[in-house]
Design goal:
The chain is α+β, with helices and mostly antiparallel strands. Helix content is about 45%, strand content about 20%. Strands 7-6-13-12-11-10 form a six-stranded antiparallel sheet. Strands 2-1-5-4-3 form a five-stranded antiparallel sheet, sandwiched between helices. Strands 15-16-14-19-20 form a five-stranded mixed sheet, with helices on both faces. A hairpin with a 5-residue loop joins strand 6 and strand 7. Helix 1 packs antiparallel against helix 7, helix 2 packs antiparallel against helix 3 and helix 10 crosses helix 11.
């Protein structure tokens, strides 16, 4: 009996250990899945946050260009050269008008400008001197022409009747008094809009839910989830195809994947699908379809965590040691996570290209500084700086040189301002500058000096020396100002500087206070 006694506790320990392991393994599997999902959620949330801000900037920049396109036909319709050519179509007047349209198209992102007679025949064009010109051709069946003859402004997407190239058309009536004497139209091709975006994950859908722009050509003319039903005749007119295929996005159903991700037909890789729309872009919507191949490793990551957690639980005799090791490991992970979050916060507050503050940080800091200005009566000035003819730099030298110009602007301004001032990028080539404790007169001195520095200086790209000027609009904080009204006055002043000839500084005065009624 004495020989069996030591075996009974050992046998009991083996039984208990077996039961503990059998109970622990399902819990370890659940914990490994939970940890994997948690890390995946944090990674996706971080990517989503940064990509949402990037998409907002892309949408804002695209909307600015779109608004300019929609107003360009009005400029054409009111051009004296165009009106003269329509009234007296002599060779001299026609050449003068065609030359004017050719110069105007260079200042837009459009591709072709037409002036169309009321019979639907193209009589003037920006490419009149080119072999491919459509001068003399008729467009009387095109919707953007028919709508305008009814007195409406036309915006239409479709394939070119003669070129077959898809694009957007903008048109307005040309009037003499109350009579419509012609139609002014501008076309921008899809590949031209595509060149505005460097990110291959960006795509644009129209109001029907059809992808009309994407660097991934296999996505073009596919419908997004929730797309409207379209008749075959309208599909052929708009997209050049009698049938459209869905893009094939289905919600990801893996238990390890965070909610809000999608799978694309024929791919196991999860995708992040974001959308952003600006009311001024004729119901176009910008999307970001971003593959996340790193999430394909989640099952292997779960198995790794299961081996780690399950193995540590199976070592029951070293439970205390393993628990202390695990706690130290968690503490170390916490420090690493805090460091990573700090770095991610820094990146989230910085412009990815120039390193200055992004729009979100700038508006947050401006709101705090404006509150201090209201509370203590401190002077505060805000300026918006825009590079003159920035599109020419991109068109002439390429986008990398344009990016170098943006970084040159940030370096130059940062070297000239105080430590408490803040420079932020709020648009494509637009930057905002916050000047606390600065009066209107002092702000004018600083900004005039900055303008002069850019006028006299430049930057080197390769072996070329490139210079540019800037237009600056600024405003001083008033008692009733919020950040929106303050920035709007600065933006209006910038517009005045642009309209006044560029390379100048303009002040946006606060609106006069309403007179108080007599007691």
């Amino acid at each position: 009996m004495k020989s069996e006694h030591p075996r009974r506790p050992f046998a009991l320990a083996v039984v208990i250990l077996t039961l503990l392991i059998l109970a622990w393994l399902p819990a370890a599997w659940w914990l490994s899945g939970s940890l994997t999902r948690s890390e995946a959620q944090r990674n996706v949330d971080d990517i989503r946050g940064r990509r949402v801000e990037m998409l907002k900037l892309q949408t804002s920049g695209f909307a600015d260009r779109w608004r300019y396109l929609t107003t360009s036909p009005e400029i054409i319709a009111n051009s004296p050269a165009v009106l003269r050519a329509l009234a007296m179509p002599t060779h001299e007047h026609v050449n003068e008008a065609n030359h004017y349209l050719d110069m105007l198209i260079e200042r837009t992102i459009g591709d072709t400008i037409w002036v169309i007679s009321t019979e639907g025949r193209i009589v003037l064009a920006s490419d009149a001197d080119k072999p491919t010109t459509l001068v003399g051709r008729t467009l009387h069946d095109q919707p953007f022409f028919r709508d305008v003859l009814k007195g409406q402004s036309g915006q239409f997407f479709g394939h070119g009747l003669y070129t077959g190239q898809p694009g957007f058309y903008f048109s307005v009536p040309i009037r003499v008094g109350s009579d419509i004497v012609g139609v002014a139209a501008i076309k921008v091709r899809i590949d031209t809009l595509d060149a505005l975006f460097g990110d291959p994950s960006i795509l644009i859908s129209d109001q029907m839910g059809v992808v009309v722009m994407s660097k991934v050509r296999g996505l073009l003319w596919h419908t997004l989830p929730g797309a409207q039903a379209i008749s075959p005749s309208l599909q052929t007119l708009r997209y050049g195809k009698a049938s459209l295929e869905p893009i094939g996005l289905t919600p990801a159903s893996s238990p390890l994947l965070p909610a809000g991700l999608f799978h694309k037909a024929g791919s196991e890789t999860p995708y992040l699908f974001l959308s952003q729309r600006d009311g001024s872009t004729a119901r176009l919507t910008l999307h970001m379809l971003l593959p996340l191949p790193e999430l394909n490793r989640l099952p292997a990551q779960q198995r790794f965590y299961f081996a780690l957690i399950g193995g540590s639980g199976a070592l029951a005799l070293a439970l205390v040691t393993l628990l202390l090791t695990y706690l130290r490991h968690i503490k170390r992970l916490g420090r690493q996570l805090a460091d990573a979050n700090h770095e991610l916060q820094r990146q989230a507050d910085s412009d990815f290209l120039t390193g200055c503050a992004n729009r979100r940080k700038f508006e947050r800091m401006l709101e705090a500084e404006l509150a201090r200005s209201h509370r203590y009566g401190n002077a505060l000035a805000v300026a918006i700086i825009d590079i003159d003819f920035f599109k020419r730099i991109n068109d002439s030298y390429g986008h990398p040189v344009g990016d170098a110009g943006l970084m040159h602007l940030v370096r130059t301004v940062s070297a000239a301002i105080r430590e408490g001032d803040l420079l932020g990028r709020i648009g494509g080539e637009e930057f905002a500058l916050m000047l606390p404790q600065t009066s209107e007169q002092d702000a004018d001195t600083v900004l005039q000096r900055l303008r002069a520095v850019f006028e006299a200086g430049g930057f080197t790209a390769g072996e070329q020396r490139i210079g540019f000027t800037v237009s600056i609009g600024y405003a001083a904080a008033a008692e009733a100002d919020g950040i929106e009204s303050l920035l709007q006055r600065a933006d209006a002043a910038l517009y005045a500087a642009k309209q006044g000839g560029r390379n100048r500084v303009c002040f946006g005065a606060a609106p006069a206070a309403a007179a108080q009624p007599n007691a």
